[in-house]
Amino acid sequence: MTEKKQIKSADTKQLGGAKTKSLQKEDVKKLNMSETRAKKIKHSYKVKDAENALVLKLKDGDVVIEMFADDAPNHVARIKELVREGFYNGLKFHRVIDGFMAQTGCPYGTGTGGSGKKLKAEFNRNPHKRGTVSMARAAWPDSADSQFFICFADCPWLDGQYTVWGEVTAGMEYVDMIKKGIGGNGEVIAPADEIISLAVVADL
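and the corresponding structure tokens:
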């Protein structure tokens, strides 16, 4: 058996530093990422249509949302447009009511803002149930913009009055962990939960 030579601390200083040390976080993710592995990651979400599915990254885990492009085509198209612009990344869940829903999509984090483009309502027959993703709006039916909510439970009184454009098909347990608001309006004081990122599965 040959004797192993121990490297002394003085010798280690002469060793070159890791070439990846100065890389940005996004670049590190790309290291050793083959096209095959990238495809496996994409397929791991098990969605019906990668072009009409989203991955919502929360602090506790990933949430998969499949969109109803046939039932709310204009809303789905606009959501994808905003997602690809990075509009939602970093936005807070500003209104969260336990047993009801979690709302996000306001650039100000107050529920008073949007992207600046109103959408004509596309009310459909999809029910508001646990995991439903629907558009928030003001009193005027055609006032939906960028804000949306995810239902914690079945909310049949909302059916036919808000545009349902998707549903959570995986990761609903992470939605349940979003910090709840106080009072009847569900305003979240110092929101702790945000959309870390929102991406179309086909783009991953």
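(Above: one complete record from the training split.) The longest strand covers residues 61-67.
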